[in-house]
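Q: What would this chain look like folded?
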Amino acid sequence: MTVKPLGALGAVLTAGASAGATAVAALWTFPSMLLSAFVVAWGAEAAQFLISQGLALAALAWLQTLPEFAVEAVIAWNAGRDAGRMHLAVANLTGAIRLLIGLGWPMIYFVAAFFGRKTRGRLPTIVLEREHAIEVVGLVPPLAWFVVIWLKGSIGWADAVVLVALYLAYLVVLLRVPPHEEEELADAPAVSRWAYNLGGKRRVAAIVGLFAAGGVLLYLTAKPFLESMLGIAAVLGVSDFVFVQWVAPFLSEFPEKVSAFYWAQRVDKAPMALMNMVSSNINQWTILAAMIPLVYGWSHAAAGGGFVAFRFDAAQELEIALTLAQSFLALLLLMEMKFDWWDATLLFVLWLAQFLRPHWRAQVLALYLLWSAGLIAFMLAGRRPCAATRIFLEVVRAGRRPPEPGNAAPRA
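A: My prediction, written as structure tokens:
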């Protein structure tokens, strides 16, 4: 199979197809992407002592998903000019979300379990902090609205407005959560401690500088990194759909995976690593999704066809339903405010099944729904706690850090 050109994205593939150029570019793009991920992660760890950790992770998610936004914008623009490309816009969005949950979340657990095996002596459980209930519950509104979008079979500018408003409301709630106590600074990396200990305006300048430096490096590296990595996919003859749904999202999500795994290997920061990805999921379900009808409508209008809504066909509806089911299941798992080996393993297995056997999508969707129904039944029967909603209300109402030691949710 060969890769068909996708406008600007096709140009990227063509530019990266040269094996020699790819090899040379990889010598500096790969380490540069790693460095950018570490720099913004250090900035986020220092920022959590000035603003809430959730707000710091939200800022981090914006920087990390810039390559993903760029890819989605190109695909949505081309779809507005060519109806035959419309399926690719949904493929990139749904693939990115399913990849983050089905591969990213489990990998965080497995990394934390690997590095924590010597001290714990058993498979650990990632226990979330109380403030993380905001990120968990923050998934609910966009998922609920996307059910409405799926039922009406289209996404338009009004849906984009609602999704953006939901994201802004999420940020407002995060503003109510105070920063971490300075006593926890000792556990931060040396660069984060250095930036925070500068004090005063220099502290703010240093932390903003870390975010800015990492962001600029990421911006300068993203395009050549995609050129070098995606060129390999082109040479291997990856199909359009597989390329857009899995290869492009994997590469565009590379920075957030690096920072998340960096935190996960420190074990005690595994909850922060998981929330890094949850924050990105919220970003994807709101701002990234909202961009599709706006860019698509603008492109369609610029071509003389008028500003129209993005309508789904049967295959796209299945993709969205599958992604919604996976995200809803992931949400239910985190409602207990913990994430264990069973959750991670099954999420990974079900993602791997649909990746290796794309024609199993309907069956995997059914399994997601059955698993979710079982969790809901256990919750209603009182056999599985639904702690996130209660803790969310407590944290928001209090507007301050709860006094419990470690601020950790109790184990079930």
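The first helix runs from residue 8 to 16.
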